[in-house]
Design a protein that fits this description.
Blueprint (H helix, E strand, L loop, with lengths): L8 H14 L3 E4 L11 H15 L4 E5 L5 H14 L3 E4 L9 H14 L5 E5 L1 H4 L5 H10 L3 E6 L9 H6 L3 E4 L5 H6 L4 E2 L3 H4 L2 H11 L3 H17 L3 H12 L11 H12 L3 H15 L5
Parallel strand pairs: 1-2, 2-3, 3-4, 4-5, 5-6, 6-7
Helix pairs in contact: 1-2, 2-3, 3-4, 4-6, 10-11, 12-13
């Protein structure tokens, strides 16, 4: 967002391109770090358009279309599919907790609105109040033909569920950058989290090490990734770091006020010098490159 609170399209394109050039395989657009539930549907739709335009078929865009009502989520899903994104994703409806039957119908409607492109469920119980257990995912799987998989962002103690989801034939991404190595050993396809957006290099290297079978190197790289993750404790911290390296004033959406946002970003700068150097080497130069 810019200082007025509007979508900063140039900054979005720069961050997108920076990650593509770093070697990432795809994007989870407008998820938790992207604050999609706090922006207008029109801005969410514009983000889908920009992502498809910027991508040009190079990686996989998974566009978040989750909303508190099924009608809004369906409208976002239909638009995202028409834009040309490869897949969509959605959190469960929040505030009013749905029944199992209503939840299945919600996702079925979203899948149909998108024309059947791959659909991922976003397991984020800390924010939605709904825990997508393997049993519940089985119900959704049985009722939603376009279901492809999920992003598992439950508590750290629930990482073991990855093997259950994978055993059901679902594509599973772990939502915690500190747990990419154990999750992938259990069958996860990769990691989707906020910190890799600002410093993708260590996670790209970690993925390559795991896929190459070099577990000792992967252990070292996982520690590096955890160190970067520990520098940023909120989505606003990730965005503040990117703002800092882009040479922009930190911009936050209410209810997080500017003073709190400034303190979070300033706190990040005050951490250990070695950690700041590691983060700067991952972020500072690539973000400054102009998009083609």
């Amino acid at each position: 967002m810019d200082e007025s609170g509007a979508l900063d399209e140039n900054a979005f394109r720069h961050v997108y391109e920076y990650n593509v050039q770093a070697g990432v395989h795809g994007f989870w657009i407008a998820g938790g770090t992207g604050e999609s539930v706090m922006i207008a549907d029109e801005e969410n739709m514009r983000m889908a358009e920009i992502a498809a335009e910027q991508n040009k078929g190079r990686v996989t865009n998974i566009m978040h279309v989750g909303a508190i009502t099924t009608a809004r989520a369906c409208a976002l899903a239909e638009h995202a599919a028409k834009c040309g994104v490869e897949s969509i994703c959605a959190v469960p409806p929040f505030f009013y907790k749905p029944s199992v039957e209503a939840l299945v119908e919600h996702y079925r409607a979203i899948g149909e609105a998108s024309g059947g492109i791959p659909l991922f469920v976003y397991n984020l119980p800390g924010s939605t109040g709904t825990v997508l257990t393997p049993g519940l995912m089985r119900r959704i799987q049985e009722g939603v033909p376009s279901l492809k998989g999920l992003k598992h962002s439950s508590s750290d103690s629930q990482v073991g569920l990855v093997s259950s989801y994978v055993g059901m034939g679902l594509t599973c991404f772990i939502g915690n950058g500190r747990l990419m190595l154990p999750a992938m050993i259990m069958g996860a396809q990769g990691c989707i989290d906020g910190p890799p957006c600002m410093a993708p290099d260590p996670w790209v290297k970690l993925y390559d090490a795991i896929m190459g079978g070099d577990i000792e190197l992967a252990k070292t790289l996982q520690e590096e990734c955890a160190e970067v993750s520990n520098l940023v404790v909120t989505p606003h911290g990730c965005k503040g770091t990117l703002d800092d390296f882009l040479g922009r004033l930190p911009c936050a959406l209410m209810p997080l006020n500017g003073e709190t946002f400034f303190l979070q970003t300033s706190s990040l700068r005050s951490r250990k010098q070695s950690s700041r150097r590691a983060l700067a080497s991952s972020v500072a130069h690539p973000v400054c490159r102009r998009c083609p």
